[in-house]
Specification:
The structure holds 2 protein chains of 2 kinds.
Chain A (H helix, E strand, L loop, with lengths): L5 E13 L4 H6 L5 E13 L3 E6 L5 H8 L7 E6 L2 E2 L5 H8 L2 E4 L13 H11 L6 H14 L5 H5 L8 H13 L5 E5 L7 H18 L2 E6 L2 H7 L2 E6 L2 E7 H6 L4 H9 L49 E4 L2 E3 L2 H4 L9
Parallel strand pairs in A: 3-8, 3-9, 6-7, 7-8
Antiparallel strand pairs in A: 1-2, 1-4, 4-5, 9-10, 10-12, 11-12
Helix pairs in contact in A: 4-5, 4-7, 5-7, 7-8
Chain B lengths: L1 E12 L2 E13 L4 E5 L6 H8 L7 E10 L2 E2 L5 H7 L4 E4 L13 H12 L5 H14 L16 H13 L5 E5 L7 H18 L2 E6 L2 H7 L2 E6 L2 E7 H6 L4 H8 L39 H5 L5 E2 L5 E3 L5
Parallel strand pairs in B: 3-8, 3-9, 6-7, 7-8
Antiparallel strand pairs in B: 1-2, 1-4, 4-5, 9-10, 10-12, 11-12
Classes of the chains: A alpha/beta, B alpha/beta.
């Protein structure tokens, strides 16, 4: 097995959510209907890496993040943490591991309990994990992390309620809560998308400096490819539950192989009125994850789709060093690329 | 075609007046799109609601003029405004795609809107118009009998645009048209707005916190901060040479998928409380170049250079 150094690994992860159906429907038809949120995802993250999981809605990126943290159980597949298979662990067995794995949510207004003051919000993980021995130690650890997220003076912020803080301040509290136990692995789910643009860079810089200081690893889940480009060493692009392209961020942005990645890059608006789009904006919308297209699930919108794409799922293969793509065209680069 | 002159709108609250928009002036010519850019609390939605006189209770236009085809809308009564709303100026609200009534078919909601504003139109004529509108916005006319939940986010946004254009308005105000849409769908909607602008000679005011979206569609851009207009001019001029320190900070804060991987900028601090905003230039507490005069008196919009470019800043 290559890369025993990985901190977290997903192996052929699948998460299918069953849909409740009406009584009459169940009488008429036998087949159950599922939302195939994650449909065969495999990748590894190295220690200290900032790995981006990029995709639009229905891509399965948030569910993948939650699967890695065992916040939800996979339908199939394996989750490995520091080389150990944690897929089947009970919640009692997971508890000591939870100290090392944390999450930062997207909405700074929803992710903090409005009835708790900042001190209690940040102290909660310490209390659950019984990480401190005295009240003084708890207080000190909370103050310390509040200083690190630049909420000065910490004594004052500790006593405030979330509604008394701005969006940026609340997200700093969320970051503080995520880092107070010195975790090794953090999933950040759209951590800045609900913040004003001019303060995003600050919050991100803060997160990244904490990550660097502690040698932690981050899985950044985002729809914003431009943001991922600035922040992540490596990136995986997801579409309808599967990874379509994976590898070094700059390599992918400079030379996107998968037609979906190309379409995504072409669609990102650029803050420059004089620049032209890099390619056509493709038509159509994301199909429902309840009935994804057979074969390559992007074939319905792909300008290069041919017969094989409609029946065979393309495997993720390494096309060049640290650059993987799941596309039949890339499989055989000599093949004629004219649309079907 | 639309000209704002010193528009000042405040909201009356128990704690006093919230100075949401102060002395805002800009022009939108026929067939042109103006991007109104700013972050939360900058007053851009207040300006939009003021134009249509749709301010919530407590909102008051305290000073200024809103000239639509030469006529000042500010003193008009609600009855008179009704003739202008939707037929002269129309709006697609932020998050409107979630405001469609879930128990009625989409077509029926458009038909309802048409017949409310034009009671002489027959039901069948209204239906035909609705179908034509769907085609214009790129939704298959056969989908017109669907319910909102059967539409994707992008289709709902298109349906809302169709509804807003049903009475052939001259000006369309779009409030955050790209928010809540996936990247590719957003690009499709923007493409649609550009083509509608060309095909119909439609004028637009596009409100967004996202500079990139505005760069795609608008010829001119107005940057707002804490209720004040800080920079105004052609999109090209503003992006090539942002003058106001806030504009510079804002542009620097956007990551780009192209070009060099530069360091992302941030503006320290946060927008002020508009109940008692800072004196003088409202950006001075966060401005790296703030001088004494900035704290005392609000700088006026001044033309810089030979082109269409104005900035309200003592640095110039």
């Amino acid at each position: 097995m290559e890369n025993d150094e990985s901190i977290v690994a997903a192996e052929k992860l699948k998460k299918y959510f069953p849909i409740k159906r009406g009584f009459l429907e169940t009488l008429v038809s036998r087949t159950d209907v599922f939302v195939k949120a994650v449909d065969g995802v495999s990748f590894r993250m190295q220690k200290g890496e900032i790995f981006g999981l990029v995709g639009e809605s229905g891509s399965g990126k948030t569910t993948t993040g939650r699967l890695l943290l065992r916040l939800t159980d996979p339908t199939e597949g394996k989750v490995t943490y520091k080389g150990r298979d944690i897929t089947g662990l009970s919640s009692r067995q997971m508890k000591p591991l939870r100290r090392e794995m944390q999450i930062i949510f997207q909405d700074p207004f929803e992710s903090l309990d409005p009835h708790m003051v900042v001190k209690d919000i940040v102290a909660e993980p310490l209390r659950i994990q019984k990480a401190t021995k005295s009240r003084e130690e708890l207080d000190e650890r909370v103050k310390q992390i509040l200083r690190e997220v630049e909420l000065f003076p910490p004594e004052e912020f500790m006593l405030r309620f979330p509604h008394e803080l701005s969006g940026g301040q609340r997200q700093r509290v969320a970051v503080a809560r995520a880092f107070v136990l010195h975790p090794d692995f953090i999933v950040a789910d759209e951590p800045v998308s609900m913040l004003d643009v001019s303060i995003r860079a600050e919050i991100l810089a803060l997160m990244l400096s904490l990550v660097e200081k502690r040698g932690a690893s981050v899985l950044l889940v985002t729809h914003d490819l431009a943001l991922a480009r600035h922040v992540c060493n490596r990136v995986a692009v997801m579409y309808l539950g599967r990874i379509v392209e994976l590898g070094n961020t700059e390599t992918i942005v400079a030379n996107p192989l998968h037609p979906y990645t190309r379409a995504l890059i072409a669609a990102v608006p650029v803050p420059d009125p004089s620049s032209k789009r890099l390619g056509e904006v493709i038509s159509g919308e994301i199909p429902s994850p309840v009935a994804p297209p057979p074969g390559c699930n992007f074939h319905t919108r792909c300008p290069y789709a041919h017969l094989r794409c409609t029946s065979e799922v393309p495997p993720l293969i390494e096309v060049e060093k640290d650059h993987w793509a799941a596309c039949h065209l890339v499989d055989r680069p000599s093949q004629d690329r004219t649309p079907a | 075609m639309l000209q704002l002159d010193g528009l000042t709108t405040n909201y009356r609250t128990l704690r006093g007046w919230v100075r949401a928009a102060e002395d805002v002036s800009f022009t939108v010519e026929k067939g042109e799109a103006l991007g109104l850019v700013g972050e939360s609390g900058c007053g851009k939605t207040t300006v939009a609601l003021s134009i249509l006189k749709l301010l919530p209770s407590g909102g008051r236009i305290r000073r200024g003029k809103i000239l639509f085809n030469g006529e000042d809308l500010v003193p008009l009564s609600d009855k008179e405004m009704r003739k202008i709303r939707w037929k002269g100026i129309s709006i697609v609200f932020q998050g409107a795609m979630n405001a469609l009534n879930p128990v009625f078919k989409v077509r029926d909601q458009i038909v309802e809107a048409i017949r409310l504003h034009e009671p002489d139109v027959s039901k069948s004529d209204a239906k035909k118009r609705a179908e034509g509108l769907f085609e214009m916005v790129g939704v298959e006319p056969s989908r017109i009998t669907n319910y909102p939940h059967e539409f994707s986010g992008g289709m709902r946004q298109r349906a809302l645009i169709a509804m807003a254009l049903a009475a052939n308005p001259q000006l369309l105000i779009a409030d955050e048209p790209g928010t809540a849409l996936d990247v590719i769908v957003q690009a499709q909607v923007l493409q649609l707005m550009r083509s509608l602008k060309e095909k119909l000679g439609l004028s637009m005011v596009m409100i967004s916190h996202d500079l990139s979206i505005v760069a795609e569609v608008c010829e001119n851009v107005a940057i707002m901060y804490a209720g004040q207009l800080v920079e105004y001019g052609s999109a090209e001029a503003i992006f090539k040479e942002p003058l106001h320190p806030y504009t510079q900070g804002l542009i620097g804060a956007f990551p780009s998928i192209r070009g060099e991987r530069k360091k992302l900028l941030s503006i320290p601090g946060q927008p002020p409380d508009l109940l008692s905003p800072p004196t003088g230039c409202r950006f001075h507490p966060r401005c790296p170049y703030a001088m004494d005069v900035c704290k005392k008196e609000k700088p006026q919009l001044k033309k810089v250079g030979s082109g269409n470019h104005y900035v309200a800043c003592y640095l110039y």
